[in-house]
Amino acid sequence: MTEAAGNKLDDAPLSRFHKKLALYSSGGPFLDGYVLSIIGVAMVQISPQLNLSDSAEGLIGASALIGIFLGAFTGGWLTDRFGRQLLYTIDLIAIIVCSVAQFWATDPVWLFVLRLLIGMAVGADYPIATSLLAEFTPRRYRGPLLGGLVVMWFVGAAVAYIVGEILLQTGDDAWRWMLASATLPAVVIVLLRHGTPESPRWLANKGRTEEANAVLKQVYGPGVTIADMPDEAEERENVDIKAILRSGYGGRMLYITVFWTCSIVPLFAIYAFGPKILDALKLEGGLANIGEAMITVMFLIGCVIALLGVNRMGRRPLVIHSFLWSGLALLLLGVFPDAPSGVIMTLFALYAVIIGGTQILQWIYPNELFPTEVRGSAVGLASSASRIGAAVGTYLVPMALTGWGVGGTMLAAAAISLLGAVVSVFWAPETRGMALHEAAALTPRPVRPEPTGRPASV
Question: CA-CA distance, 171 to 45, in Å (whole number)?
Fold first, then answer.
């Protein structure tokens, strides 16, 4: 396959199709942020009405997170086996059904099971949607569009706090409407996703040549066929999912898991630190929920800034600097926990903005570093493994705040972020400017500079 032929797909202009696909794929992260955040507001009413013990409250709060852990790898395996398109809507239909069912939940066990199933569906959507987006998107736009999915997580979280506060004023059954409210965005996303074509890379990999050519014609025009796609057969080196951990891809999987965990655990610590900041600002009751939404907006801004720089700066420098400087901000929070509220807020804002680099790379790196036939499984496995760290953060941060205080908790979070920086110095690869098959190859390829002009049209 000639390089010129490969460029027909890799250097295609960003089309209306790509923009719509990115928007529709962002529905999963939006629902994740929404589902995981709305429960925090709803718990104000759930706990007294269902007479929840501390352990039951913790389990219900973490149930969706446990479900994501279970669903991410399963969804990845299914999407590699049965295709991206079919599961692209089925997983969201499951969210709709379970969200509606929450309205009639009458006991903690039933509520736990429903939120566990919702989490599994949300987790399954990660490898499904990101694989589909990565396999359609031209190289120049792949990083920003994949990273943009993380931005939607924070949008979903912010919307959840606002919706929760509005519904909280409706009465004692407000929590039922809160939990069921995820149905509305899920229905909209399902309708928008209807008709999305299957990935031509996956179709070609399965030998379904005519279907792959039909999709390429639909998306890129009549002059493009699978002959214009790079042959990934040359890049395959023991990539069966069972062999990932013992092949050259095992090292990549280890790095993705460590980097993702180091990125997400301090984030949960910071969310736990949020109420302390709000107390310093004397925000209580309804203002506290709005304040939580504003805190989430700070993380969102950090992700947007990272998106603007991911192609200019490159993946490797971005992840290293993001870990390093955000870790230093946490270190200062730990050393000076009793600083004036203005100083606390400034350091908090710095952390939230700078950590955006590691947040957006959670979806860019896994999709770029593995080949088509196991991309979904690899993304799912990395996502599931990282959720272990998220669960640790959820359970241990409250205990750390009690036992170590805010200062000690922030020092622990700083240590985790700085560990991520050290690991990234040794292991973080650079995939900027590479075609998808080049980024996934185990054989090192030269890094190309990002195009400065308009990409050649197909």
Answer: 10
Whole-model pTM over 0.85: no
Mean of pLDDT over the chain: 82
At 457 the pLDDT is 32
Under 8 Å between Cβ of 256 and 126: no
Which residue has tokens 């994740």?
A: 32
How high is the pLDDT of residue 109? 92
For residues 61 and 49, what is the distance between their CA atoms, to the nearest angstrom?
15
CA–CA dist 225, 208 (Å, integer): 12
Residues 6+ away with beta carbon under 8 Å from 138: 9, 10, 11, 12, 13, 14, 18, 455
pLDDT digits (tens, 9 = 90+) for 55-105: 787 778 778 878 888 888 888 888 888 888 878 888 889 999 999 999 999
Q: Are 308 and 166 in contact (CB under 8 A)?
A: no
CA 356 to chain centre: 12
Asked if residue 221 lies in contact with residue 233, where contact means CB atoms within 8 angstroms, the answer is: no
CA distance 418 to 168: 40
pLDDT value, residue 3: 41
Mean predicted confidence (pLDDT) in 356-383: 86
How many residues does the structure list for the chain? 458
**Closest CA relative to residue 111, chosen from 178, 193, 160, 207:** 178
Residue 326 has pLDDT above 60, yes or no: yes
